[in-house]
Design goal:
The complex is a heterodimer of chains A (145) and B (517).
Chain A lengths: L2 E7 L3 H15 L4 E10 L8 H32 L3 E9 L1 H11 L4 E5 L5 H7 L2 H8 L4 E4 L1
Parallel strand pairs in A: 1-2, 1-4, 2-3, 4-5
Helix pairs in contact in A: 3-5
Chain B lengths: L2 H14 L3 H29 L10 H16 L3 H4 L1 H9 L13 H12 L2 H14 L2 H26 L2 E2 L5 E2 L2 H12 L4 H36 L4 H16 L4 H28 L1 H17 L6 H17 L5 H6 L7 H8 L1 H20 L30 H9 L5 H32 L3 H20 L2 H43 L8
Antiparallel strand pairs in B: 1-2
Classes of the chains: A alpha/beta (145), B mainly alpha (517).
Chain lengths: 145, 517
């Protein structure tokens, strides 16, 4: 039976380390699928001007396209070229919540992420997305430092 | 330019104009602007507010209330039956998480509210209560509750018939649903009516969405820093608005959009504190509201005067039936246009039934309105047109004085709130006006720039003109939009009913489900 491992990328070096760790783990398994997920931080409860709303759909498409071409597609290609079975997803939403939901929906058995990259006031008050994921995930989470 | 520098520049301008010669010249400019403005807009205002023959009842007020009542009955009290569902939609219970990143129901509601919650809630209510007495509040609440159905109708159509352009941007509003809806029903005249609506929308954007805001913001600032010519405030406001809508300095708009909701909460919080401190007078205040609603308690025009003021102010504040919200709500990406109708019906509730009532209660409880102890009726001013107040205040200064009686430093907070509300409403209405303008003259940088420059010029005129002509023109322009919009809604409402029937059936059968997060 194939095992599906989810790798959460955030476009930073820690994401790259998570990717390297997932490859290493997958190489030790007989059948393993890798699912690369990039979540664009987004809250439906922010305030916007009417003009921003009118252009929002266009912006969303641009954001997804950018995340695909710059982060997810190169990662998936690198994995595929190395002989792994890999695919990618880009979504908007709360990073921890969305990563967990997509993992469950796609039958992932564990999540590998890099250590959080946010700092300062936000981190002190709300914690990082990684901390939130570890606290609320429905599957095991490996945090790569 | 941030708000602090705006204030300092305003104060400096006031100081510069304080020399006798400069002051005389400045007042001369104000008076000239005011006279020209009053002469130009007079006939238009008179037409919109013409009374029914033999009465003092303006036909336009009845037009709005009858429409809201008809929509309420036609859709089977949709504002009450689907109230819980509306709240669930705003919370995102029915939003597909895979659509995240699109404009949410909450965002569309917040954007539309930032265009409506503002001076209508602060200054408009003071005008209504100052002329129509506490009884005006009762009619304002009633108009707010009925107006929820009007808002539901227009915003559903706004999403259903919006234009989606190849580049992914959207444009919607009455001008689009009138022309497309009439065409779908095989009715003639859709294009002409859409053009007529657009003309009135541009006037509304320049009136209520612009001049009224500039005027009252100036009144509030000069109340704190001392009297000085309005054109100074106007030029500063115009420069900041110009920087945002023409210069594209989004940071100013972004800061405003984030600060305004907090100012709104602060305003409601302050009102609640005053009401809690004066809890023993709340019963009396409601007594005044109910008694005034049916007897007038001595106000000009009796209870009909209270009714007219209440209905007028509610319509001006929540804009139900006017069509402006349909422009704001049409940006939502949804498979079910009617869901945006449900969300939009919360607007008059928040704007009028909650916030306006808070303002009215604070004014009544603060006892700024003078009562004759012998009769229990309100005392009229010398002209006999409004209730006499303790310091002769009216409009925003009456609200300010009422809040100051409970929290002495609150006028300073209110001044900042008024400036921010005014600014935020101007930015919203510059967009509504622009959409109507581009509907008439086509999309394009030059045509857009022409409208934006005109919009900024009207800010200066609004700040310089005295309150009377500005309020009259603001009301007339907004209500003129409602004349065309409501006329067309009567023909288009069957399309909304069809949507409502289909959606309600699928919701009941469980076909439309909540998404679990």
């Amino acid at each position: 039976m194939s095992v599906k491992i989810v790798i959460g990328l955030d476009g930073t070096d820690t994401g790259e380390r998570a990717l390297a760790f997932a490859k290493d783990l997958a190489s030790k398994m007989d059948a393993c699928e890798l699912l690369v997920i990039y979540v664009i931080e987004w809250s439906p409860f922010t305030f916007q001007t009417a003009e921003e709303n009118a252009k929002r759909h266009k912006r969303r498409e641009e954001e997804i396209d950018l995340a695909k071409t710059r982060i997810v597609d190169p990662a998936v290609k690198a994995l595929t070229d190395a002989g792994y079975s890999a695919s990618g997803i880009v979504r908007h939403g709360d990073v921890a919540e969305t990563l967990n939901r997509l993992t469950v929906e796609n039958g992932g058995s564990q999540i590998i992420v890099g250590r959080g990259s946010s700092d300062g006031f936000t981190k002190r008050v709300f914690g990082t997305s990684t901390q939130n994921l570890v606290m609320h995930a429905d599957v095991p989470v490996t945090v790569v430092g | 330019m941030n708000k602090t520098s705006t204030f300092w520049l305003t104060a400096l301008g006031a100081a510069a104009a304080s020399s006798p010669l400069a002051a005389q010249e400045a007042v001369g400019i104000d008076a000239r602007v005011n006279e020209i403005f009053a002469n130009l807009t007079g006939p238009f205002v008179n037409l919109i507010f013409a009374p029914f023959p033999g009465t003092s009842f303006p036909w336009i007020v009845m037009w709005l209330v009858i429409a809201a009542t008809i929509f309420t009955f036609y859709f089977g009290f949709v504002q009450f039956r689907f109230f819980k569902h509306s709240v669930q939609l705003v919370k995102g219970d029915y939003s597909d998480p895979n659509d995240a990143g699109e404009v949410s129901h909450f965002q569309a509601l917040a954007t539309a509210l930032s265009g409506t919650v503002g001076l209508g809630n602060i200054a408009g209510v003071a005008v209504a209560v100052g002329i129509g007495g506490p009884g005006a509040t009762f009619w304002m609440i009633l108009a707010g509750l009925l107006g929820m159905a009007s808002k539901f109708t227009e915003c559903t159509l706004g999403v259903k018939y919006r234009n989606e352009y190849p580049d992914g941007t959207v444009s919607g509003g009455p001008m689009y649903y009138i022309s497309k809806g009439f065409s779908e029903l095989g009715l003639p005249g859709g294009k002409i009516l859409a053009v007529l609506f657009s003309v009135f929308c541009i006037l509304g954007a320049l009136g209520g969405g612009n001049m009224f805001q500039a005027n009252q913001a100036h009144a509030q600032i000069s109340g704190i820093v001392g009297d000085y010519p309005g054109w100074i405030t106007g030029i500063i406001f115009a420069a900041v608005v110009f920087a945002v809508i023409v210069g594209g300095i989004k940071s100013i708009a972004n800061v405003t959009e984030k600060v305004v909701p907090f100012m709104g909460l602060l305003y409601v919080g302050a009102a609640l504190i005053i009401l809690i401190v004066n809890y023993d007078k709340i019963g009396w205040a409601f007594g005044q509201i109910f008694a005034g609603a049916f007897t007038g308690l001595g106000v000009a025009g009796g209870f009909v005067g209270a009714l007219i003021q209440g209905f007028k102010r509610a319509a001006f504040s929540n804009e139900a039936g006017v069509g402006s919200a349909a422009i704001a709500h049409s940006a939502v990406k949804t498979k079910e246009p009617i869901t945006e109708g449900f969300v939009s019906l919360l607007e008059p509730l928040i704007d009028t039934v909650v916030i306006c009532t808070m303002t009215a209660l604070v004014i009544v409880i603060s006892q700024q309105l003078i009562i004759d102890p012998a009769t229990g009726n309100y005392v009229l001013n010398e002209a006999g047109t409004a209730i006499a107040t303790v310091d002769g205040n009216s409009g925003v200064s009456l609200t300010s004085a009422a809040f100051a009686s409970g929290i002495s430093w609150f006028p300073y907070v209110l001044a900042i709130a008024v400036v921010l509300f005014a600014f935020s409403t101007m930015i919203s209405w510059s967009y509504y006006g622009l959409k109507a303008w581009t509907y008439l003259f086509g999309e394009g940088k030059t045509t857009e720039l022409v409208f934006k420059v005109i919009f900024c010029i009207f800010i200066v005129i609004g700040a310089a003109a005295s309150l009377g002509p500005v309020i009259d023109f603001s009301d007339a322009a907004i209500f003129a939009m409602a004349v065309v919009n409501i006329f067309c809604l009567y023909f288009l409402m069957k399309l909304v009913k069809k949507e409502l029937g289909s959606y309600a059936a699928r919701l009941q059968s469980g076909e439309i489900k909540k998404f679990t997060h």
